[in-house]
Structure to design on (144 residues):
């Protein structure tokens, strides 16, 4: 009987990929901030967040049906939730700008967006290595 194992590591990587795309968009929005263009970005940003939610749902669905997992179940649940939180919070930044009708943003917002994007890219790099965590020589430095 052929076993179709779910790729939890690939799912984590995909969620981090959505974070990278969302953080990149946030950086572009803040670099050329225009309140009038925010309504165009909200559905695009929501799509990244929604796609990450679908991956989260797939993770939970497979966890409910699989007996053996590559790492501890509770660790999978926590990692998936934390990755989803990253996507949720990036979307929240855009939604708050829109909801509060902010006319101007501080110049430091660009620097903060750059830090968020760099963090997402680092997270994505670490998660690419995560499937090899037992033999990886670089995952420790990527985590740091």
């Amino acid at each position: 009987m052929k076993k179709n194992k779910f790729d939890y590591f690939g799912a984590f990587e995909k969620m981090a990929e959505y974070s990278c795309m969302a953080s990149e968009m946030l950086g572009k929005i803040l670099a050329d901030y225009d309140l009038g263009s925010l309504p165009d970005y909200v559905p695009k940003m929501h799509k990244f967040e929604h796609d990450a939610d679908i991956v989260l749902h797939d993770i939970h669905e497979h966890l409910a049906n699989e007996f053996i997992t590559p790492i501890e179940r509770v660790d999978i649940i926590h990692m998936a939730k934390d990755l989803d939180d990253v996507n949720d919070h990036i979307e929240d930044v855009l939604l708050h700008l829109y909801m509060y009708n902010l006319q101007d943003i501080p110049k430091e917002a660009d620097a903060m967006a750059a830090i968020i994007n760099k963090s997402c890219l680092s997270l994505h790099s670490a998660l690419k290595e995560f499937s090899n965590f037992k033999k990886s020589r670089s995952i420790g430095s990527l985590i740091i």
